[in-house]
């Protein structure tokens, strides 16, 4: 299903944290990440592009599309882009 965010909103996929060590021990604690992959951008988004990995300051609205869970977030909730170069 195609989803197009409006305004300065983005559709992002939160990156899951690996809660196991290489030896198989399960780590207890935080299981959600503040790193997300940008799936789609709204027409008013200026600094972020589809495919970027971003750091979120806050989460948005959770949506499910084709069996996958995404977040709709505002561009203002992004504090940085990973791997960005000019």
Report on the structure:
This protein is an all-beta fold and 86 residues long. It has a single domain, classed as 10 Kd Chaperonin, Protein Cpn10, Chain O (Roll). Helices cover 0% and strands 40% of the residues. It has strands at residues 9-14, 35-41, 53-56, 61-65, 68-74, 78-82.
How do the helices and strands line up, and which of them pair or pack?
Blueprint: E1 9-14, E2 35-41, E3 53-56, E4 61-65, E5 68-74, E6 78-82
What value does the average pLDDT take?
87
Main pleated-sheet profile: 6 strands, antiparallel
| N to C succession of SSEs | EEEEEE
Strand content: 35-45%
Query: Which structural class do the helices and strands define?
Result: mainly beta
Reported CATH architecture: Roll
Globally, the shape reads globular
End-to-end distance, in Å? 33 Å
CATH-assigned fold name? 10 Kd Chaperonin, Protein Cpn10, Chain O
CATH class: Mainly Beta
- Say which CATH homologous superfamily is assigned: GroES chaperonin
Oligomer: single chain
Computed CA radius of gyration, to the nearest angstrom: 14 Å
Strand elements, count: 6
Low-confidence stretches: none
What number of structural domains do the residues give? 1
Total helical elements: 0
């Amino acid at each position: 299903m195609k989803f197009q965010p409006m305004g300065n909103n983005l559709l992002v996929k939160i990156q899951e944290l690996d809660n196991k060590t290489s030896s198989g021990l399960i780590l207890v604690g935080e299981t959600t990440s503040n790193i997300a992959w940008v799936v789609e951008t709204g027409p008013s988004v200026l600094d972020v592009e589809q495919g970027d990995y971003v750091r979120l300051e806050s989460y948005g609205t959770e949506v499910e599309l084709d069996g996958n869970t995404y977040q709709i977030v505002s561009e203002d909730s992004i504090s940085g882009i990973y791997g960005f170069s000019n």
